[in-house]
Amino acid sequence: MKNIINSEHAPKPIGPYSQAIQINNILILSGQIPIDIISNNIPENIAEQTHIVLTNIKSILIASHFHVKDIVKTTIFTTDLKNINIINKIYMQFFIDNQSAFPARSCVEVQALPKNVKIEIESIAFKK
């Protein structure tokens, strides 16, 4: 069974896609960019952008009755791999704070991202 997931606690899609699709016990999240849902702003700082992206991912997980510990794969897109140490610090803390093991991951430098953000993260979650 396929369910479309849209959380009010994460930014609305800026294109023709869903925040996430759930198929049985698998949740596939679209790439999330750092739009703060309260202010609708995007901070300049890569640390703040990373934190907001992960917060938005967590909001979608919660709306789907999944948890951070259910994430099995992430893909990080960044416009500057020189920021990887900052990204890794926040990423690592996000999973540790949520008592989760680190998922499998890819990280790719890209030329540009929507709304000129510095980071986008997509993820896949699985629960038994």
Automatic annotation (TrEMBL):
InterPro entries: RidA, RutC-like_sf, YjgF/YER057c/UK114. GO terms for molecular function: deaminase activity. One of its GO terms (cellular component) is cytosol. Signal peptide: none annotated. Pfam families: Ribonuc_L-PSP. Belongs to the RutC family. NCBIfam families: Rid family detoxifying hydrolase. This is Reactive intermediate/imine deaminase. It comes from Buchnera aphidicola.
